[in-house]
Design a protein that fits this description.
about 40% helix; about 200 residues; 7 helices; alpha/beta; single chain; 6-stranded parallel β-sheet; two-stranded parallel sheet
Length: about 200
């Protein structure tokens, strides 16, 4: 509706994106699964979770992945007063940059919900919006890994942005376990399609 990007301009690659972290168990497990396959990801971090574990956020970057902004607290943008949203956004950017040494360049709001004023505020701070073109509904428990992998890779094409979760802070408990278990099949499907994973 707002014409916001859901795909990358990368015909030979897809973006594996992970929301809601960092998480003390889920994030390291995802990082290990990606490391085993020499794959890259984009981690949309919540500032309040980065504050709980700054070294884990730094580990994401040290492993060669990108970090992006998913807000400070996980709240629907449409329910926030403009000043409240700006404060949340600026705090998240600062917390992520302080922890990782990297200033994020991408933003995805909780629930994928944007407001017009919010879009202007994120762009004014040098952030590009990015939604997704495919998802695996992996925030639900129990969700079989095979179902997650099949849904998120169906008719996979270059430029797709895949939405997954490495955390359960705002979703069903331990839902990240299904994501981790699904990752080998997801990476197999990406390889079979002749595609690579993009980190930016």
């Amino acid at each position: 509706m707002l014409g916001l990007p859901r795909r990358l301009d990368r015909p030979a690659a897809v973006a594996l994106t992970f929301d809601d972290g960092p998480h003390p168990e889920g994030t390291p497990a995802v990082l290990e699964a990606l490391r085993e396959r020499d794959a890259s990801g984009i981690f949309f971090l919540c500032g309040e979770q980065v504050e709980r574990d700054p070294p884990l956020a730094a580990e994401i970057v040290a492993a060669g992945h990108a970090v992006a902004v998913h807000g400070h607290r996980h709240r629907n943008m449409l329910r926030l007063a403009p000043r409240t949203f700006v404060d949340d956004l600026e705090r998240a950017i600062a917390v992520i940059e302080d922890a990782t040494g990297v200033r994020p360049t991408l933003f995805r709001p909780p629930y994928g919900i944007f407001s017009l004023p919010g879009i202007a505020e994120i762009r004014a701070r040098g952030l590009g919006p990015l939604l997704w073109s495919r998802w695996g509904h992996d925030w639900r428990t129990p969700r079989p890994p095979e179902a997650i992998a099949a849904e998120v890779t169906e008719d996979l094409r270059g430029g797709d942005v895949l939405l997954l979760h490495d955390a359960d802070h705002y979703s069903d408990p331990e839902c990240w376990r299904g994501t981790v278990a699904a990752l080998p099949s997801i990476l197999d499907a990406i390889h079979a399609a002749g595609l690579k994973t993009a980190s930016r």
